Amino acid sequence: MGKTRSAPTLNDVAKAAGVSTATVSRCLNSPDRVIETTRRRVLQAVESLGYTPNFAARVMAARRSFTIGAIIPTMDNAIFARGLQAFQDQLHENGFTLLVSSSAYNPDAEREQIRTLVARGADGLLLIGHARDAEIYEYLDRHQVPSLVAWSYDPAAQRPSVGFRNADAMCELARHVISAGHRRIAMISGMTQGNDRAQSRVKGVRQAMEASGLDAAGLTLIETAYEIDKGAEAFGRLMALTPRPTVVMCGNDVLAAGALREAHRQGIQVPEQVSVTGFDDIELAEIVSPALTTVHVPHREMGRKAACELTAIVEGKSEGRSICIETRVVTRHSLAKPPCQS
Amino acid sequence: MGKTRSAPTLNDVAKAAGVSTATVSRCLNSPDRVIETTRRRVLQAVESLGYTPNFAARVMAARRSFTIGAIIPTMDNAIFARGLQAFQDQLHENGFTLLVSSSAYNPDAEREQIRTLVARGADGLLLIGHARDAEIYEYLDRHQVPSLVAWSYDPAAQRPSVGFRNADAMCELARHVISAGHRRIAMISGMTQGNDRAQSRVKGVRQAMEASGLDAAGLTLIETAYEIDKGAEAFGRLMALTPRPTVVMCGNDVLAAGALREAHRQGIQVPEQVSVTGFDDIELAEIVSPALTTVHVPHREMGRKAACELTAIVEGKSEGRSICIETRVVTRHSLAKPPCQS
DNA sequence: ATCAAAAATGCAAGCGCTTACATCGATAGA
DNA sequence: TCTATCGATGTAAGCGCTTGCATTTTTGAT
Known about the structure:
2 copies of one chain form a homodimer. Chain A has 13 helices and 12 strands. Chain A is of the alpha/beta class.
């Protein structure tokens, strides 16, 4: 007998406070449109009933969710963690909630995740990198969901992006490598298929080589997934080559950590016998020994700026600018001169 | 003139296929209740219109979301990454979607995230560890949202959990430490406040000490946040002590990695001068040098099992069992005998 | 061919909220 | 005192979907 024990609705609150549902709704969403005394009464009822608005109903009625979706390639390592955390924090500050899902570097999975997030009413989407089917962007347009690309900066692209120049950054690192005296350069890249960041990083190395009069075709390149084990394995293959490369530039710090682990296992001295470099400057880079010479990416800054830009777009306050984040080479101990006999 | 360019609804599909909305809905949700020919016609219309169901509307009407929420303490490091990834994969296999948010180890933030997830219609929640306000569980009950605790196993707790015995696991590791000859033991723990896993790990060390006739009160303990830098800083403080501990047991691998980094910086040899241990056996543990002696937690197994149990509960197929995941000590190089002069 | 039972489909009532518009007082200038 | 104005609140029409029930069609046994 009496009220059921299920969750209270707006209606219950309205009754308890002796007002209409409209007033309760206004109390919650635009408190200044309701007179002080009423507001107090309503909030009091909300409190005592333990009322939480039903999100689905709200989204449906308001056709707005104050939710931003992000699809990242993986949660399995720390590459995106820091940037995403900053993104979320800033989003929260701007009154939005973040929904994250990961695509495992799989375009089909990404497409599905995008649809899911749109279906869930995301007001905007954060995407990693530019490379994806035009069809996806059409879908986003049709559903009028704005998107922002991060982790990559390309002023030439149609879509706004907040990121860094992958090619230039890697090119600069390669210049350091070359000016340290290295000529036999190998690279362990992430899978370039459908990954513009990986592609650009390879391109950056080639550019630096050409600029120094080296033959870019002479770059020994292995493509593999961004996993420690894969990095280790690729490094092993590289070390079996004759002549051995004197430096192994890795597509990111995770691969480099794998390379270092394998070097250690094989008793190969880094950097005395062979140098190794990374990219990203995640925490890992400082922990491994020797600490990695790598490209520092200000992930937090990127995350924050992406959040601000994306919310601005969603609120119609921006048409979608692209923002370039500056990276810089960090010199630690994994890069040195090539061994003499080389 | 003509149709607007906005996203198609169920109604549009129904019209295009010449059926009622009910039939379209059934096509999508229980295809076997619709005859083959009709189904093809409908799916065809769905396809050509590029229709994606509106999630909010569906949740509202069905009062079910096929969504599971997870609130983890942090995304900032890899502690939860692997387990969560497995959790998500299994969830997906079981037909559910995962929504993740992080609380930054802050109980208030966690409470808010829980409310948010419930408001969003989560059918069930994954929570980390048992320690939280009773009020939260009441709220969950009122909203009839089942929850499952992970990363911790406690058969005595009211709520079902899928996890491991933190105290026992750490106790076993401590036994190894003690039987290696260590007597001056220090520990860098995570903040134990509101964190039953951290508490249990400390307890485990104490238990092992007492079992070996050592005075558990003699344990030098520093509590700090689970961050590399904090681990480094705490290790520094420990090394300044006289007499120095001969072993530093860390609450997890992240703290241990920080300790190792600081040891390296100060030129302290591990394990020759001081031993270090971790907990979790995340990737990091194998990468640092010396590689960490730590407690291996089968995160993927835990994630998968948690997903299966939680979906079973949600579907009413389980009353909520608790599942214990077995851990084991992994011996690597960071633990050795204490130095002789000690 | 006949009819009951089963299968396929349609109808329409919500799900819990927001918001345009209507209503009602109170305030203030004439 | 009267009316125009404005602020506070109420009324009710959806938002796009699911689902119980009603209706129509098919099936199969006679």
